[in-house]
Amino acid sequence: MTEPSASGDPQGPSKNALKKAAKEKEKAEKKAAAKARELAERQKKEADDANDVSADCYGELPMVGSPEFKPSNLPRVNLADIVELADKEIVFRCWVENARVQSAKLAFLNLRQGLNTIQAVVAASEKLSKQMVKFAGNISTESTLVVHGLVKKTQEAVKSATIKDYEIHITKLFIEAKAEVPLPMQIEDAERPLPSEGLGNEDEKAAGDEGRPLVGLNTRLNNRTLDLRAKINHCIFVIKSGVCELFQEFLRGKGFVMIQTPKLQGAASEGGSNVFEVKYFDRPAFLAQSPQWYKQMLVASRFPRVMEIGPVFRAENSNTARHLTEFTGLDLEMEFQENYHEVMGLLEDLMLFIFKELNVRYKKETELVRSAYHVEDFKLPESGKVPRIPFVEGIKMLREAGEELGDYDDLTTPQEKHLGRLVLEKYGSDFYVLDQFPLAIRPFYTMPSPANPLLSNSYDMFMRGQEILSGAQRIHDAELLRKAIRNYDPPLDPDSPAFKDYVDGFRFGCPPHGGGGFGLERIVQFWLGLPNIRMCSLFPRDPQRIMP
Amino acid sequence: MTEPSASGDPQGPSKNALKKAAKEKEKAEKKAAAKARELAERQKKEADDANDVSADCYGELPMVGSPEFKPSNLPRVNLADIVELADKEIVFRCWVENARVQSAKLAFLNLRQGLNTIQAVVAASEKLSKQMVKFAGNISTESTLVVHGLVKKTQEAVKSATIKDYEIHITKLFIEAKAEVPLPMQIEDAERPLPSEGLGNEDEKAAGDEGRPLVGLNTRLNNRTLDLRAKINHCIFVIKSGVCELFQEFLRGKGFVMIQTPKLQGAASEGGSNVFEVKYFDRPAFLAQSPQWYKQMLVASRFPRVMEIGPVFRAENSNTARHLTEFTGLDLEMEFQENYHEVMGLLEDLMLFIFKELNVRYKKETELVRSAYHVEDFKLPESGKVPRIPFVEGIKMLREAGEELGDYDDLTTPQEKHLGRLVLEKYGSDFYVLDQFPLAIRPFYTMPSPANPLLSNSYDMFMRGQEILSGAQRIHDAELLRKAIRNYDPPLDPDSPAFKDYVDGFRFGCPPHGGGGFGLERIVQFWLGLPNIRMCSLFPRDPQRIMP
C-alpha cells in the first residue's frame, strides 16, 4: 500500500504541490550557494588560521569544570596592586566594560575588576595576529575574560579608566564566560543617579543629565543582577557590610553576645497588626516583627548584653521611599545599673564609632556614592557630644518654627525632617537623639517616666532628620507589665497565649534593662543621603515587589 | 416598702438566716483576734525596727525607673576581677543561687554573676542587725540583688562556689527584683546532662545520677527563660556567638562581603518541597530554604566573595535530634579561578581557624560543657591536613567494614556516623571532607564532574561523623543550567517564573564559582558533642514546637 502524501492528497501533484516543488528547488539552489560561500569562507579562515600566529592566544575557553578545561595554574593578580606590577607580565580575570576595533591592527578594551578599570591595547605585530585584534575588539560587553599582558606606564593619563597611569598590552586573551547581546540594560545607566525618590513610572521617561534616557528604579530592580554590577551599588553594599562589621566590633568589645532569635512565632506579638501569617504544618504561625520580646527574655535569662543582626518582617502596606516589608534589624538589649541613659550613652557611642570608622575604612566608597548624588558630608558635633533633645523641647523648637502640634502628639515624617534641619542649624549635627517620648505613642512594654506619667523612658535616634532607631527602658516587673498590657489601647489580655511566655519571663528576678533596634538599610541610606531605601537592599521587598 | 432580704425570704429569720448570723459572729471574732495579733506583731516589728541598726542597709529597692527610686551612682564591679578587689568594699549586682539561715546571727548566700559564684556571709554584729540576717537568709532563689560588702580571703577553699579563695562579708543587701516562689524548675536541674537525645517523655520519669528526678528537654524548653540561666547553657550560646565572630573574622580577612538576602520569596525555589508558605498581602510567598540562588546571583553581579549569617527555614516533618525547622545558616559563595578545590581549601582553612580559636578564646566554656556531658576532645589531624576523601573511597571503606551499599547510593545517618568512626581511626581526625558526590543525589545546579559524568564537583563536611556543610561548584553557564533543570528528576521548566530570574543571572558573563552552607547549630552541637540540636538553639523550632 502506498502511503498517502503528507499533503493528504493521494491523487497527484496539485497547484500547491507544484508551488512547493518550485520553492524547494529555489531553496536547494540557495543552500548550494550558501554552502559554496561557507566553503570559501572556511577555506579563507583556514588559510588565515594557518597564518594566525596568535591561534593559541585568544578564543573562548572551555567551561571551567568541564572535561575539556585544562587548568593553567598561573597565579592571578589584583589590579588594585597595579603600581607593584609595573613592567611585569600578569594574568588576571576581569570583565569587559567596552571593546572597540580602532583599525585592522588595533583594538582597545576597557576592563573592569572590582572598582578598578584599566585600558588594554591589542596591537597587531609579528607575534599578534589581525584575527586576534578583530576578535578582541568584538567581545560583547560584560563578558568575563582571562587576560595575559604586560603592564606599561601610559604617556598621558587615561581619561576613561580609574587607573590612569598604567595600561595593559595584551598578549593573550580568553573569554571565560560570554555575555549575551543585547543586555537588558546598560551598566553605565545604572551608575547615574535616580531622579528624586525613584518611585513612579514617569522616571523611566524623563531624560537624564546627558540627554540619555533614565533607567528607572523598577527597570533596575527587575534586572537587579546587572544593576548591582554598577560601581555605585558595589559601594553601597560594601558600606552596608561595613556597618554590620563595625556594629559587632564595637559591641563585642563591650561584652555583647550575638544571638539568633526565632523568626517563626506561635502567636502574633505586639497586638497582631502588620504581621505576616505562615502556614506551619497544620496551624498558623507568624513572622517576627522584631526580636524585641526574645532579646528581653534573654536578659531575663541572665545574658546581660545581647545583640542580633537579622531580618525583620512588617506586613505594612506602605509604598514610600523609606519602608520595606523585609529589612535588616540591628538589635541590642542590655542590663543597666540605675538609669536608662546608660543604654542611650552606649548607643550614641556606638553610632559615633560607626560614623568615624566609616569615614576611615570606607572613605572611598562613601565619596563615590555621595559625589554621584551630590550629597553633603554627614555632620557630627565638633564637641563630640551628641545632641540629646527632650521630646517636649523638640515640640517647642518646631512650634517656634511655625509648626502646629500638641505636647503629646507624634511627629509626622515632614515634621521629623523639619526638626532635623532645626537641630542641624542649632547644634551642627546630622545625628541626634529625641528623649522622653509620650507614653501613649510607645509600645506597652515601655517604662513610664518617673518624672511625668504621661512621658516614658524612651528615645529615638535620627540621621539627617529621619528615624534610624527606636529604643527604651522596658518594664522588667511582671506585675507592672501585666497592668500595662491590660491598660493598653485597645486593652489586651496578659494571660492569653500570645503574652504568657513573655510575661512569665519577668516573674523570676529580671534586672532593669533597655535597648533599641536600628534599621540597617536606613543607616546606609541616610549616611549616603540616598533618595530611596530600596537602593540599600540587595533584593528589596515591598507590597508590590517580591521578585527577583 | 421594705426591701426583700438578699435571701429572697421577706417573712422573717429562717433556719438559714440563723446559721448565717452565727457564722458572721464567728467571723467577726476571728477577725478581731487576727487584728489583735497583727497589732502585736506590728508593735513588735516597730520595736525591732527601732532597734534595727541595719534598717537602711537591706530591703526591697523601689523599681529602677520608678519615681521612688533614687540612684546611688556607686560604681558596680565584676566578680571576674575578684583578685584585684581583695580587701576592698565593693558594690555589685548578682542573683541568689541559694540562701540559708545558719543561726539567728548568721546567714550564708551563694551569689552568682555570669559564670562566677561566690559565697557571701551575713553575720550579726553591733553594726548589723539580726533582722537583716533573717531577711538575707530568706531571700527567694533567683532574686536579683544589689550587694555591698567587703572582699575577704577565705581560710579554706569554698567548695560550693566557683570562686574558692574569696568571700563577701555583706554590709548592705537590697533585692532589686524578687523572684516568685516556687520556681517552675530548678536551675541546678538544668545544669545536669540530658539522658541520651532528650527526646520523648520517658526522660522526665527517669532518675538522674544523684537520684534526683531528671528535668526532661520538654520541661526545660517550656521554661526556657529559666533553663537558659544554667551555666552550661550560657556556655553553649557564648560559644555559638563565638563561632559567628570567628566565621566573619576569617572571611573578612579574605575579602568576603557580608550580605543579607531576602527570606521572603515570590516563588518556591529548588522544586518547592519543604517550603513554608506565607500570606503576602493578596498572594502567596515562601520562606527561603537557603540563600543559595541569591548568593550565586551576587557572584554574577561581580561580588567575588560573599558571606551571610541568617535564618533558614525547612518545612520538613523531621522529629530527630538533629533537625530544626528554623536554623542559622553560615553561608558563603565565591569566584574561583580554575578549580573548585580552591573553595574547598578555603572552607577547610576556615574550619581549622574556628576550631583553633575556639580552643583559645572559648576554652573555659568548651570544657565546662564537655565535662558535664563526658565528651572527648575534638580531634584534629596532627599534620594539619584535613582528610579529603573521595566519595567512592568512603563507600569502599564502609564496604570493607561490612556495610552493604552501591557506588552511587546516598549515605544514611548511621552510615555517615560509621564512616566518621572509620575516618577517626584511620586519620585521627573528627573533621573531614567527602568529595565528588554522585550527581544524582545533589541539587540540579551542581557542576558535573569532568572525570565522571555520574559524579559531581561537590562536597560535604563532617564533624564527629555528622554533616555540617554541603557545598559544590555551581553551574555558571545559563545554557547548561537550563539543561540541568530540564533533565532534573522530576523534570522542571527553566522558563517558569520560579527559575527565570535565577537562570537569567547567568546569561551575562558569570565567572565560575562555588561555596557552601554550614548549619551553625550543628557546628556547636558537634564541637561540644551534645546529644540534641535543640540545645544549641535559644528558642528551638520543630514540627511540634513553635513556643515560647
Description:
2 copies of one chain form a homodimer. The first copy, chain A, has 548 residues and is an alpha+beta fold. Chain A folds into 2 domains: 59-177, Beta Barrel (OB fold (Dihydrolipoamide Acetyltransferase, E2P)), CATH 2.40.50; 232-536, BirA Bifunctional Protein, domain 2 (2-Layer Sandwich). Helices cover 32% and strands 22% of the residues of chain A. Chain A is built from 15 helices and 17 strands. In chain A, the strands form 3 sheets. Chain A has an 8-stranded mixed beta sheet with strand order 7-11-12-17-16-15-14-13, with helices on both faces. In chain A, strands 2-3-4-6-5 form a 5-stranded mixed β-barrel. A 3-stranded antiparallel beta sheet of chain A has the order 8-10-9, with no helix packed on it. In chain A, helix 7 crosses helix 9, helix 7 packs across helix 10 (363-372) and helix 7 packs across helix 15 (520-528). The model of chain A is unreliable at 1-12 (pLDDT under 50). At the A-B interface, strand 2, helix 6, helix 7, strand 7 and strand 8 of A face strand 2, helix 6, helix 7, strand 7 and strand 8 of B.
